[in-house]
Amino acid sequence: MYRTKTCGQLRISDVGQQVILAGWVQRTRKMGGMTFVDLRDRYGITQLVFNEESDKALCDEANKLGREFVIQVEGAVNERYNKNPKMPTGDIEIIVSRLTVLNASLTPPFTIEENSDGGDELRMKYRYLDLRRSNVRANLELRHKFCLAVRHFLDSKGFLEIETPVLVGSTPEGARDFIVPSRMNPGQFYALPQSPQTLKQLLMVAGMDRYFQIVKCFRDEDLRADRQPEFTQIDCEMSFVEQDDIICTFEEMTKYLFKEVRGYDLGDEPFLRMPWIEAMTRFGSDKPDMRFGMEFVELMDVLKGTGEFAVFNDAAYIGGICAKGCAVYTRKQIDELTNFVKSPQIGAKGLVYARVAEDGSVKSSVDKFYTPEVLSNLAKKMQAEAGDLILIISGDDAMRARKQLCELRLLMGERLGLRDKNKFALLWVVDFPMFEWSDEEQRLMAMHHPFTAPKPCDVPKLDSDPASVLADAYDMVCNGVEVGGGSIRIHDAVLQAKIFEVLGFTPEKAQEQFGFLMNAFKYGAPPHGGLAYGLDRFVSLFAGLDSIRDCIAFPKNNSGRDVMLDAPSAVDQAQLDELQLALAPKA
Amino acid sequence: MYRTKTCGQLRISDVGQQVILAGWVQRTRKMGGMTFVDLRDRYGITQLVFNEESDKALCDEANKLGREFVIQVEGAVNERYNKNPKMPTGDIEIIVSRLTVLNASLTPPFTIEENSDGGDELRMKYRYLDLRRSNVRANLELRHKFCLAVRHFLDSKGFLEIETPVLVGSTPEGARDFIVPSRMNPGQFYALPQSPQTLKQLLMVAGMDRYFQIVKCFRDEDLRADRQPEFTQIDCEMSFVEQDDIICTFEEMTKYLFKEVRGYDLGDEPFLRMPWIEAMTRFGSDKPDMRFGMEFVELMDVLKGTGEFAVFNDAAYIGGICAKGCAVYTRKQIDELTNFVKSPQIGAKGLVYARVAEDGSVKSSVDKFYTPEVLSNLAKKMQAEAGDLILIISGDDAMRARKQLCELRLLMGERLGLRDKNKFALLWVVDFPMFEWSDEEQRLMAMHHPFTAPKPCDVPKLDSDPASVLADAYDMVCNGVEVGGGSIRIHDAVLQAKIFEVLGFTPEKAQEQFGFLMNAFKYGAPPHGGLAYGLDRFVSLFAGLDSIRDCIAFPKNNSGRDVMLDAPSAVDQAQLDELQLALAPKA
User: Alpha carbon of A273 to those of A290, A426, B238, B275: distances in Å?
Assistant: First the structure.
């Protein structure tokens, strides 16, 4: 037996017990004739004591221990003279009578402390050391608890967790697939699923009624910050439901999770449900951060044509936000904001501001174009008070301008401390458009995916005005992050074929790619719908992480590499030969 | 709202209630002026009644319903005149007042009944219809419950479920990897994990202490019966443990699962632990079916050199089993057994038998070579009684002959009804050899995998006599099926390097392939070990299935194809170009 107790277990009531512990040397300190060793395992830290006077040889051994050595000790639990109230085991120490080194350790390349001196690259290469840091470990513990709670809740609601295959067929819609050559079927490839979307729909056709799965999904995309080529979804689907049934079920789950896993009470009120167009108008985003207000005020009536400022007079959209108490912003601070909105990733042409002075007068960067009355109207419309700063963005393309203003709002929220990581604001965004125009593809694309049902009342418009058709789709948003989303699905083969037609598929292509689903719909498909949560993102929110990486045990970097395993890598020619494949490097 | 109740819910106490149900038409019957419809959903079947007299139009609609139509009905719960005690809802029926067809159905290609008329091929192509059969659905429900119970148990023991990546590096040891070309790293490939073995060991190095994961694994093997290219493991690992700690933990889990999920009490006694060599000697198998005896009796002393039968006199092994009460077997029945052991997949040269007559005399197929005393000794040694049949196999290669006799034992157990699917016999097989010789590779191969620790006392023999070294490995066997297996792992970089050397790796090759693990061992790796269960197989045992396929929602066939999705399939040239790959069909 390697241990009788863990390093997080012993208390004052255990004093006098003989125990065996095992773990890692966190640190050693020599004080006079005493050597103190902090012994660490997953459960905590316990102080070991070696006394030169009582056993010099043993103490000498202890003095040779290096950081991260794995040791086993036997000894008696003793009450500490200097108690440490910050540690659960801070009342006791172990007077060691036997010490065994189970494994030595090289000096780790960075410190195994909450605040490590290791950079990202180094931490990822030695991820097995990084994971020893208690804060990183806590994220994985949280993820474990979170998943258990999800399963507990969904099981209690009659959902069955059903595994769907990882080796599936390639689908052309959506992101790029990872593909897997088949040795037994040379020249053919499996694809890794971007989501089990069609499979879960088939499970509904199969009468499974309520399905879920916590499941790995795969997308071969160029990795923006905080995307991983493999990620985990909480994937759910229900039969004989309407949008309201799904929203109610998963709202209840969300409240349960926040309470059980995060200790956070979301209250009894239902979440807000906001139509997509309203979210875009009020916040310039389909995932508004509702922890704070600073809502958009449209200023077309106040500023367009009311002065000589050509930019506004030509604009398709003029909108502002009011930053409380920011009239004190210096020229330099405002320049920073201007540079931010003009940066390539935001892309605004410029930023107009107006300060409301203590006397109520308004000083603006476009003073010379407007009468004091117009500026006063502006302040009034913005409900700006003395000391406030009004920030205005305009543009030719209303949606684009709103998205720019959204970024500015989020930045100001951050600066004003309105985006508290320990506060959570949830809402449903509903009534999304079915389609969005793709300049690249020169056709309508599905905004969610091609299996999303249109609002029943909009079905007739599929022929006359498809761009105006709304979808029976919904996203769950928390703190400006889309944590989940889904829709009522099409369960009718004829309507499904119609949608493929609108998306520009020929009947033959639709049959080739999605025949298995459309055929299944002919054998008694029930009405159904569902949603999927991004587990990594949901857990990150709970943990207050800036990146999803730290709630993933072995994440990949931005080039899709696992730097610890050094994967991907070259394979033997023999392996390629068996697969009847050849490398074809671009010239 | 599509329904107020499910089809499995209503009882006599609900009579008089107005309800809405939705589901599939299982069957319709017309009797006089009444039409009866059995409405099915996941939860059960409820009888609907339509009365021509009270509403002719509605009854006409009901008469048009076909099998597997999806309908919604509203009506009153009524006490049935002819109650059906076999159905939970058999006391009631619904007097329907409103009928809506939610979706029509083509006539399904096979019957949706427990005993379907669909062949395997057809059932797999229309798996979404096959899954509607209540017995197939029950397997998925069982699997769901089983996994929940596993998670509940392991969580209660402090195990953390931690997801490991699916896109990893290729490893040369073990079976063939599926590989995944990386677009962002052209010419390089990920591999899909055959198991998270090295990753879970790194989690132990990371101090996670107790890890588990219910996880998909992948092997690109030629598919024998009952193998799938992707399968699911319950993968577990613990730190600071010896073999006994692991066996005790998972024995407790197994008893818990049998009780909670299968309602089967395995009792308080610990499972038998049988050394590998004993299992081979007594049962000719490293996974003996212990539901019945019929143990091997070695007959070298009785039959070798005691008569003129050259086959036995030249044999390296002679062994027999005693089939109780089978002396009545006809010549034809015995010929069947002979043909069975001589079939190519068994490969025995022949079968010798001896009948013990009612008077105790022994009649054997090798009578002419032996004296009655020898045959009497044979019967005595076999502990054969009047009416028993002795079956004997011999061979040049003792292990091969034992395996042949094992197959015969299993067949006889089957014939004698000794392999009851509702009885479970569990044991641990321990003390496996570390290595086995591969004729194909002309070198020693790891019997488990190269990370398995040798028995500490055998370490010195790694140089002098590696073939005799025993491993600290263990398999859990149930009813002749290996449901799980594992080992104490090596946690010392030097010993690990030594094992790679014995396996014929150069130090450079070992570093190239497993450097990440051996390096990790240098930073304070704790002693650790674990095991993995085959989930598909474990659930199949619980469900009494002959094939693992029926506890998998969407299994693949023997060519690794998903016939429903028609995967794998060809991909666009553009996709290959992006991956910088070309097809290279064998000439």
Answer: 12, 9, 46, 64
| ∠ Cα A508 A511 A517 (to 5°) | 170
Contact at 8 Å (CB) between B291 and B445?
no
Q: Do residues B409 and B351 touch, judged by C-beta distance below 8 A?
A: no
Q: Do the Cβ atoms of A586 and B186 come within 8 Å?
A: yes
**Contact criterion met (CB < 8 Å) for A516 and B560:** no
Mean pLDDT score, A127-143: 97
Separation CA A336–CA A339 (nearest Å): 5
Report if pTM > 0.90: yes
Which residues of chain B are modeled with pLDDT < 50? none
Q: Which residues of B touch A552 (CB under 8 A)?
A: 163
CB atoms within 10 A of CB A142: 18
Question: How much is the pLDDT for B460?
Answer: 94
Locate A279 and state its tokens: 């979210």
Judged by DSSP in three states, B195 sits in coil
Of A164, A216, A561, nearest to B166 by CB-CB distance is A216
- Cα distances (Å, whole numbers) of residue A420 to A255, A416, A504, A548: 19, 10, 45, 18
Transcribe A338-383 into DSSP letters.
HHHHHSTTT--S--EEEEE-TTS-EEETTGGGS-HHHHHHHHHHTT
B69/A524 touch (CB, cutoff 8 Å), yes or no = yes
pLDDT at B170: 84
Can you give the length of chain B in residues? 587
- Contact residues on chain B for A172, CB-CB shorter than 8 A: 572
Residue A439 has pLDDT above 90, yes or no: no
8 Å CB contact of A178 and B167 = yes
* Structural domains of chain B in order of their starting residue, each with its CATH number: 12-103 (2.40.50.140), 137-274+426-551 (3.30.930.10), 292-415 (3.30.1360.30)
pLDDT digits (tens, 9 = 90+) for B429-485: 999 999 998 888 888 899 888 999 999 999 999 999 999 999 999 999 999 999 999
Q: What is the pLDDT of residues A157-214, one digit of tens each?
A: 999 999 999 999 987 667 899 999 999 999 999 999 999 999 999 999 999 999 999 9
pLDDT at res. A586: 87
State residue B355's pLDDT score. Answer: 96
More confident residue, B120 or A275: A275
Which is nearest to A353 in space by CA: A408, A314, A414, A282? A408
Concatenated DSSP letters of B202-259: HHHHTT--EEEEEEEEE------TT--SEEEEEEEEEES--HHHHHHHHHHHHHHHHH
Averaged pLDDT, A115-138? 93
Question: Are A184 and B222 in contact, with CB atoms under 8 Å apart?
Answer: yes
B373 burial via Cβ count (<10 Å: 0-12, 13-18, 19+)? exposed
